[in-house]
Amino acid sequence: MIRFASGLIGTLALILLLTWQQSRVHELIRITRGLSGDHWYTIETANRHTGFLHTRSGGLADGGWRYRSHTHLLLAANEPVNIRKTLEFEPVTPWRLRTAEQTVQRGDARAERTRLVRNTEGSLVFDGESPMHARFDGDYTLADFLRVELWLREQNPLLLSHVRAPALQFDGGRIRSTNYTLRDRDDTGFTLETETSIGPTVTRLNPTMLPESIDVAGVFSFRLSDRSAALNVSSPTFKAAYLLPVSARIESPESIESMRLTAIDRGTTRVLLEIDARRQRLARRPESTVPDRRLPGERLQALLRDVTMPARNAADANEVARLEAILALLRSHLVYREGVEPAALETVLDRGYGECTDFADLLTVLAQEIGLSARTVIGLAYRDQKPFGFAFHAWNEIRIDGTWEVIDPTWDQRLADATHLPLDDQELTTLKLYGSEQSVLIEVSKLERRRI
Fold it and tell me: pTM for the full model?
């Protein structure tokens, strides 16, 4: 009898498990149907219509499911940022991620493409064009993608309850977990809050789980709209301040080993960002060798053959000597001029002057011409002259003898000092926004110098 009862309990447990799994399948189908179709959102920054988000999702012919999104931001004239993502899930449970792709394009720069595919062994790997390592760290399913929506439907959580949901990270090649808190719920939907690097994000979902609004740390505002309104992006009437003031001059920046900066909104004294800096700090994707500008035209290719000849003749020399050769060539062909309009690299070489991005992009191309891995980096760097402050700046990361080094060709720093801080898109956008209103103050909250 005990064995019979034990077997019966096991059978009932299996039935309950299968029933729960079938119920979850139905919930997933209901949620995907509620999200299907085209949806348009306006993006506002400081009450300016600065972009749009377009999502398109639905079932595939083989029973799989596809989610697409296109984010367009215009925060500076002639410098649109376009981010396109596509996720496709397999047609059978557990609906594993089959392919994922992200394309990022800034202005006229060459698009940066990252793509994940599932190989014959069933593992997610980056394809040959992606500037990432060969294997993705983890797996991802439709239930992961819709974790928050399933949590709201299945568990009927109480207010202030939490759930952690995995998010696919293209740049880092991993899955990052984010904590969501249920702040409100009623017959019209749900209000969720989560923390980001620049502050809390509040999302409002309607009863079908479709986002109606997303407010990101008081910086960005997404609103469900129609196509015509979303596409009516206004050209920016402001330009980010070139220099963000600092509360006190930083003495001898070349001797700094590490530091922490705090960006404060002077109007409200709210902390916008905290950024840690150290000597030779790399951006988050040092593996990338994709130039950040359009590929050279035929005329520039001819110029490159001429200016890189000395470096090519030094091919037998070590990589340090080859780098020094092209840095010398760059200094002899280009003079710094602040605030000039962006132009094609062949135009920059032709006129003989440019701003920091021109210096950095040209060094990237020159380095790659002689076989060095290189990329352009955007961020902040301290300018030790009146008026003192942190400037929006561009520099390089170049791989020398197996190690990535930070180099600033504009300011002639063979090894850039610790005040060079690479920024991600979100950090850069936040500082440009508040910089445009001249409401940012940079404070140094921690500073360590090298021992001599």
Answer: 0.61
